[in-house]
Design a protein that fits this description.
343 residues; mainly alpha; 2 domains; 2 strands; 1% strand; globular
């Protein structure tokens, strides 16, 4: 009886609403956090790179096995069909993301009592002063890969390309296994090629995109105002996937094809570092192309609310006038995360 009564009263209240109010009451709007979209798109781009080695029959990045798996592989090296060796190889990772995770654990471990920490910051500042004519270099921590902050992998890739960051010293004076793995990754041309693709995606799309969507605490961005931007992203990535060489010749490339915000590259040291490495990077343009091709797919998948005829297109002008959806979930990431963003 109670349920029937509730339904009857609810229907009467609903029937008393104006047509506009009824439409609003029946409208459910979802809009995803833009920074999470970018985080997922980077993953799609990198997975596209990983598939390239098998589809094009190319050498894969060097394996960066942990100490136990590395020992198993070394012991059974004469018998590659050994089940233990095969399991150790399957359980091990390679490539730019794995390398950046190792570097992050070494240079900016989430446990402040582990890794190089401040030693790394001072070392990298001194190296920048030594390598580049900067006059002064600001002390900056290595990107927070250990905590998977927004954009951390693209920022970390750029940092690795710009700086010489490993001095290989431990208390014993001999590199430990993690340091040896990092050196192995840095000396692998295929892994370095992946780093370049990640960094170029960051400087071309990810970094300017996050600036465009985040706003400030006082002036947050309404997600509804970003429809044109999100419809442009897949096409923008498609163009670079078809013409990856334009990223390495920014002076001859129109800004609207170079960066999503039509502004010059952020990080002026990055391009010089890439051009210096370019002769030693195998299949560079193919890997860049695959990164942006995967990103194109990711942007289509993770922006359904912006599609033509999608959720936002169905809103009435009156609904648009009163509806506000924050473009990011920064305020939902916890008090400490919000404080970090808005300080």
């Amino acid at each position: 009886v109670e349920q029937v009564l509730k339904r009857k009263i609810g229907e009467e209240k609903f029937d008393a609403l104006t047509p506009h109010q009824q439409t609003n009451a029946c409208t459910h709007i979802f809009g995803g956090c833009c920074c999470h979209k970018d985080l997922n798109v980077v993953q799609y781009g990198y997975k596209s790179i990983q598939r390239t080695y098998s589809t094009h029959d190319l050498p894969a990045p060097v394996l960066l096995a942990n100490k136990a798996n590395s020992a198993t592989i070394d012991i059974g090296g004469d018998d590659p069909n050994n089940p233990a060796v095969q399991n150790a190889i399957k359980a091990s990772s390679s490539g730019a993301i794995k390398l950046l995770q190792l570097i992050g654990a070494l240079l900016r471990n989430k446990d402040e009592n582990k890794g190089y920490q401040d030693k790394c910051n001072h070392f990298m500042r001194d190296r920048k002063l030594e390598l580049y004519d900067l006059g002064i270099a600001q002390t900056r921590k290595f990107p927070d890969v250990s905590n998977t902050r927004y954009g951390c992998y693209t920022y970390a890739a750029a940092e690795v390309l710009v700086d010489e960051i490993i001095d290989g010293k431990t208390n014993s004076g001999v590199p430990n296994h993690m340091e040896l793995n990092i050196q192995k990754g840095l000396n692998c041309p295929v892994t370095m090629t992946e780093l370049v693709a990640l960094a170029l995606y960051g400087v071309s799309v990810s970094w300017p995109y996050m600036v465009m969507v985040r706003g400030t605490k006082e002036n947050p961005i309404n997600l509804l105002s970003l429809t044109d931007l999100h419809r442009k992203l897949p096409e923008f990535c498609t163009n670079i996937a078809a013409n990856p060489h334009i990223l390495l010749d920014p002076t001859m490339t129109p800004l609207e094809e170079l960066t999503i915000d039509r502004q010059p590259f952020r990080g002026h040291l990055l391009l010089d570092a890439i051009l210096e490495l370019q002769p030693d990077l195998p299949n560079l343009f193919l890997i860049i192309s695959r990164m942006f091709s995967g990103a194109e797919t990711g942007w289509i998948i993770f922006t359904p609310e912006f599609h033509v005829g999608g959720t936002f297109d169905k809103l009435t002008p009156k609904q648009r006038a009163v509806l506000f959806i924050p473009a990011t979930n920064d305020c939902s990431e916890g008090m400490l995360g919000s404080l970090r963003v808005h300080m």
